Amino acid sequence: MSQSFSPPAARKRRQQKSVEGTLDTAFGWAIGDPKSMIVRAVFCALLLFVFAGPIMTIIVGAFDLNPDPTALTLWPHNPSLENFRVATGRGIWGYFANSLFIAGFGLLLQIIVAVMAGYALARRKFYGQTVVLGIFLATMMLPEEVVAVPLAVVLGDLPLLGISIRGTIFAIILPVAASAFSILVMAAFMRDIPEEIIEAARIDGASEFRILLQVILPMSLPALGVVAIFGFNGIWDQYLLPLVAANRTDDYTITVILRSLRADIEVGTGALLAGAFLALIPSLIVYLLLQKSLVRGMTSGAIKG
C-alpha cells in the first residue's frame, strides 16, 4: 500500500491557512461569506482611519507652510520645507543624533542582556529561579514615575563603584540596557527549543557559550525581531529618563525637545510637526525591516508542529 507524504513547505502552508481560518471564526465571520467580507472591509477601513489619520496629519503638516492639525488632508496646500528650516535652527538634528546613538547602543546592550539572561532562565536550573522571575515581572508593573527619583540617586552614586555618571549620555543608556520584557520573550522562546538538539551539541563537545551562539541564537531569530522592535521603540520614546539623567539640554533626546518646541510660541505648529515627522521615521524603518520577524515570532507557537 502506497502512502503519500506532503513536502514541509506545503504542510506549513496548510497550517498557516488553518490558523487564519481559526482567527476568522474567532472574529465572528465565516470564510467566503459576502456579508462577512463587507464587515471586514468596513472594519479594516475604520482601523486604517484611526491609526493612519494621525500619521498622515504629521506627514502632510510637516511639509505644509501653514498646517492645520485639525484638518485631515492627503496633500499639503502650500508645500514648503520652511518648517524643517525652523526646526533645524532650534538644533533638532543634534537631538536626533542623540536619540539615534542612545537607541542604537542601548538596544545592542539590551539584546545582549536579554539573550544571556533568557538562556539562563530557560535552560539552566538554579536556586531562586522563581524569585528572579518574579522580580522581572514586578519591574514591569512599576511606572516610570515611581522609579524616577531612586534612579536619579543611583545614577549620581553608582553602587560599589562610587562614581556618578549623571549628566552624561551613558546615564540614559545604562537604565535601558536591561528590559524585563525582552528577557521574558527570549526565555519563553528558548524554552520551546527541543532539548534533543542541545544534547546533540553537547555530545559533539560544544561548550555552553558555543551552544548559545551557534545553536540557540540562530533558532531564536524571530524572538530577536520581536525584542528589537519593541526594544527600539521603548528606548526611542523615552521622555522621563533623559530629563532625570541629563544635566544639560545638549544631552536631551528628540522626544524631549518636541515638548520644548510645543511650548515655544515663536516656532509654530509647522516646526513641531516637522520634528514629529523626524521622530517618526526611525520607528517606521525598524518596523518595516523587522516586520517579518515580528510576525514569525508571534505566530511560531501557533504553527509549530
Structural overview:
With 305 residues, the chain is an all-alpha fold. The protein has a domain at 87-299: MetI-like fold, CATH 1.10.3720.10. The protein contains 14 helices and no strands. Helix 2 (34-62) runs antiparallel to helix 14, helix 4 (92-123) runs antiparallel to helix 11 (221-236) and helix 13 (254-263) runs antiparallel to helix 14 (269-299). The longest helix has 32 residues, at 92-123. Mean pLDDT is 80; it is low at 1-5. Keywords: Cell membrane, Membrane, Transmembrane, Transmembrane helix, Transport. Belongs to the binding-protein-dependent transport system permease family. The chain crosses the membrane at residues 41-63, 92-119, 131-155, 167-190, 211-232, 270-290.
User: Which word captures the global form?
Assistant: globular
Please give the radius of gyration in angstroms: 24 Å
Q: Describe the largest sheet.
A: none
Helix and strand pattern: HHHHHHHHHHHHHH
DSSP summary, beta strand count = 0
**Mean pLDDT reading:** 80
CATH topology of the domain at 87-299: MetI-like fold
Strand content: under 5%
Terminal-residue CA separation = 26 Å
Question: CATH homologous superfamily of the domain at 87-299?
Answer: MetI-like
> Uncertain runs with pLDDT below 50, 5 residues or more?
1-5
Structural class: mainly alpha
What is the number of helices? 14
What share of residues is helical?
over 70%
CATH class of the domain at 87-299: Mainly Alpha
CATH architecture of the domain at 87-299: Orthogonal Bundle
